[in-house]
Amino acid sequence: MASSSPQQILQDVFGFNQFRHQQQAIVEHVIAGQDALVLMPTGGGKSLCYQVPALAREGLAIVVSPLIALMQNQVEALQQLGVHAAFLNSSLRAEDNARITREVMSGDIKLLYVAPERLMVGSFLSLLDEVQQHVGLALFAIDEAHCVSQWGHDFRPEYRQLTVLHHRFPDVPRIALTATADAPTRAEIISQLNLEHARQFVSSFDRPNIRYHVGIKNNARQQLHTFLEREHADDAGIIYCLSRKKVEETAAWLVEKGWSALPYHAGLPAQLREHHQRRFLREEGIIMVATIAFGMGIDKPNVRFVAHLDLPKSMEGYYQETGRAGRDGLQANAWMVYGMGDVVSMRQMLDSGEASEERKRLERLKLDALLGYCESTACRHQTILRYFGESHPGACEQCDNCLHPVETWQATQVAQMALSCVYRTGQRFGVGHLIDVLSGKLTPQVARFGHDKVSTFGIGKTLNLAQWSGVYRQLIAAGLLEADMAAYGGLKLTESARPVLKGAQEVWLRRDAEPEKRISKAERSARAKEAFAGANDDPLWQALKAKRLELAREQGVPPYLIFHDSTLLEIHNRKPHTLDEMGQISGIGQAKLQKYGDDFLQVLEEMD
């Protein structure tokens, strides 16, 4: 294989006719023995950027990967393609470790996946010295390279020790890859991994197949149920919640409603977590309800939606989590609802943590950026890309703001009322109390503090509770107010509020949309049919999926490792009659054609 051209490897092994975007330039650069830093969105084809060079160069390729699940998934996928790949980690028995080590030394394995902790063990580095002498080292691939950043959301201190590769094996090319890195994180990757001379390949962070929707919480469970009914009646997806308790309650509630939902969080027994993850990967239509403990390394390509019932911590976290949807390039949804309580809770979590003040300040800024995204009236794709230093023309037609432009209203006077109420009551009360004062409600707390005597008492009766909540939420997002965590989330004015109070600056706010209505089964069916070009209701499509599931169960692997939905859809639409015609379909390499070609041709023939 090492003598084959990258184009031939791409065609014969992976079943693709051509590289996408910058893949070819990256592959050729690494094959030539040069270092590279690759920033490419989830689903953009990062793995090919080191897998093709690994097969094209002589020797063993080492892939540094942070999670056992990620390693297992990648190795299973490569083995389906006929590639000799393996992993070494704590999940293996001693005899399996010994066998894989022998196969490595004999040159039988082309790609070996290891965790950074395993790599740094002295005995393993000595093993690599021997491999270098007898077999040769093709390259080092450092996946999920953002884990090196101490300011990032997935920091792994062991990643910082990987500079040993550069010093110990200076002639072996290194390729560091990530889908999530803003400018500071990128700089830290370069510094910590000694990649100052590496060529940087930065692809667009845009995921045009993902449709973004952000809404205000208004009976969040019912909103979620409506969203699932409207868009994803039989689809696999992930629902993120902030707390373990909420994960379990939401999963149980979904099951009661007839959905196939499983909980996943770090508090569950490891065996149960693994069982749930295996079911999610290997069965169709499973919904995983999880904390952020679930996700990294989940390479399931047909996740059709990612939903957030609570705010993530940052734009990076949100981007990475939503990026787990639609990895196959087909239509997917990123759906989120949030409320004022989310903002206060998240800021309390950040401020009560044990991190340094510098870290807390950075995390607050990241949360503010996410909140600004939520409240923005601009194109979602444009706002996300701007955060990562990339431009986008807007008008994506793939987000709520573009599909249903947000109505805004002149809110300067209302904003002045809200800000004045914060000031008049001493800048130490939460939203609920402030709204009571503005609405003229003489509650025990209002009476106790004498706030029925302040000038703002009762001046806001024209707005209801929901409207005032929206005003305060947006004023916080705009940076005119901030929650004082030392005062249990009480609001106080910022310097930015001064020109508004003086009448020197106008305030325009978005008008919150009405809650979505439930739709009929007929409309759900029509939407699903449109998404898969009429395939979902076609007996042939169901027969192809059934065959894929049968083959997957026989081998104990997820169905998508047989064929991705996009490949299966192409088989359905093109209806090949011969193995040669089947081999022209994207995603079917030589190994898969030999393994599965006849099985799927038989299905096509029987359904003809």
Describe this structure in words.
- Its cofactor is Zn(2+); Mg(2+).
- The chain is 46% helix and 13% strand.
- The chain has 608 residues and is α/β, with parallel strands linked by helices.
- It has 4 domains: 6-202, 3-Layer(aba) Sandwich (Rossmann fold); 210-403, P-loop containing nucleotide triphosphate hydrolases (Rossmann fold); 408-510, Orthogonal Bundle (Arc Repressor Mutant, subunit A), CATH 1.10.10.10; 532-607, DNA polymerase, domain 1 (Orthogonal Bundle).
- The strands form 4 sheets. Strands 3-4-2-5-6-1-7 form a 7-stranded parallel beta sheet, sandwiched between helices.
- It starts with 5 loop residues before the first helix and ends with a helix.
Quick rundown:
It contains 27 helices and 17 strands.
Question: Could you list some keywords that capture this structure?
Answer:
nucleotide-binding, about 600 residues, six-stranded parallel β-sheet, 27 helices, isomerase, hydrolase, globular, Rossmann fold, DNA_helicase_ATP-dep_RecQ_bac, alpha/beta, about 15% strand, seven-stranded parallel β-sheet, Arc Repressor Mutant, subunit A
